[in-house]
Design brief:
CATH architecture of the largest domain: Alpha-Beta Complex
GO molecular function, one term: hydrolase activity, acting on carbon-nitrogen (but not peptide) bonds, in linear amides
Pfam families: Amidase
CATH topology of the largest domain: Amidase signature (AS) enzymes
Number of strands: 11
InterPro entries: Amidase_CS, Amidase_dom, AS_sf
Structural class: alpha/beta
Number of helices: 14
CATH class of the largest domain: Alpha Beta
Helix content: 25-40%
Family: Belongs to the amidase family.
Order of helices and strands: EEHHEHEHEEHEHHEHHHHHEHEEH
Protein name: Amidase
Strand order of the largest sheet: 1-3-2-4-6-5-10-11-9-7-8
Oligomer: single chain
Largest sheet: 11 strands, mixed
Strand content: 15-25%
Amino acid sequence: METASDDYGAFMEKFTLPPNSAPDVPLNSLTFAIKDIFDVEGYVTGFGNPDWARTHPVATSTAPTVLALLGAGATCVGKTVMDEMAYSINGENIHYGTPRNPCAADRVPGGSSSGSAVAVGAKLVDFSLGTDTGGSVRVPASYCGIFGFRPSHGVIPVSGVIPMAQSFDTVGWFARDPMLLSKVGGVILQLPDVAPARPSCFIIAEDCFQLSFIPYDVATQTVVKAIEKFYGGDVIKQEILGDYVKTNVPSLKHFMSEENTDQIFNIPSLSAVSSAMRLLQSYEFKNNHGEWITAVNPDLGPGISERVSDALKTTGENIDTCYSVKRELHDALAALLGDFGVLMIPTVPGPPPKLQTNASELEIFRARAFSLLSIAGVSGFCQVSIPLGMYNDLPLSISLVARHGADKFLLHLVENLYPSIKEQKAA
C-alpha cells in the first residue's frame, strides 16, 4: 500500500480507475477521490482501521456510486484517510495520520470523511466522495472551507459502502464550487430532474445561531444580504426552532433531562434530538460490527475506543422511541418548510478545534455540534454546507436545509445564490 507522505496526508492509497465513457459526458476529464469506506474491486476496503483491513478480503465489486461517476467521465485517483469505523467528527487517525487542514494546519480537518475533504480543499482532486451519518461530510466541509452536500436519506444507494448506522447513513460529496457540486449530484442522485424553483421562504433558526461561537451578524449577514438582493427581503423569516421542535415532536420527552435542560447555551429539544440520534446510531453500529469487535478486539484510537465500547453496551431500550422521533421530526420540518422552504443554520458551532485538543474540552463543542447536525440527520432532510471565507483566519460556513427529496432544488438554489454571496463578501 502506498501511504501518503505528502499530498496533505489525504490519501490512504493511490491508484487510477479510468472513466468508461464518451467525451461529452458531464464529468469528462475531472478527477475524484473516495473515502476508504467504498468498495473498489480488487482492493480491501479499510474502514479507517488496520485491524479491519487485515481481517477482511478484497472487494469483489465496485460501489455503484463510484461506477456512476466513472461512467460520467471522471477518473478516480485513490482512496482517502478516514476516522476509524467512521465514529468521529474530528478527522484524526492515530494509525494512518491526520490529513492536514489546508485552511489551518494547526486545526483538525473534520471527520470522518477527513481525507476526502482535504483532497478537495488542497486542490488535489476536483471533487470527492464521503459518507455522512452524524455529520461526516458537513463537518469536514466546514472545517476545510469547501462545499459539502448531505443528500436526503435513502436517495442514493449505499450498496458497496460499509454501513455505520443505516438509519442515518448517506453518501455525500465535496467540491470547491457550487456548479460542480450540482453536476456531481446530477450524476449520482436517484431523483428526477426538476426545473429551478423559487424558494418560498428562508427560515433563520435564530436560537441555533446562539449555539455558535461566531457572532450572529458575521455568520448570517452576507447570506441574508444575498437573499435580499436575489429574492427580496419578504422571503426571510425567523423561527425559534427549539420551541417548534419541542411542540411538534412529542416523543422527545423520553430524551429530555434535567442535565441537558440546565446547560448554558443549550437548546433542550435539539439536545434531545441529538440524544435520540446517538442512541440509535450506537445501537445500529453495535448490530453491524459488535460481533467483529468482540472477536478481533481491534486497536482503536482515543475517543473512538470509548465510543465503540459504549456502543457495545447499548440495549434495545428506547429504540422504538428513536424511530418515532425520526418520523415526527420529519413531519414537523416538512410542515414548517413546505415544498420549497429553506432552513438556515450554522453547520458547526465554530471554527475547527486545534489538533489533539483534550477530549473533555471538546465535549461542549461536540454537544453543540450534534444539536445542529441532528436536525437533518434525524429528519432525513438534505443539507448543504456553504463556505463563507475566513473569519479570524479560520474557515467560516453556513448551512441550508431543505425537505426530503428536494436535493436538486437545493443544489440549484446554491448554484444561483452563491455568486451573490461572493459579491456581498467582496463588498
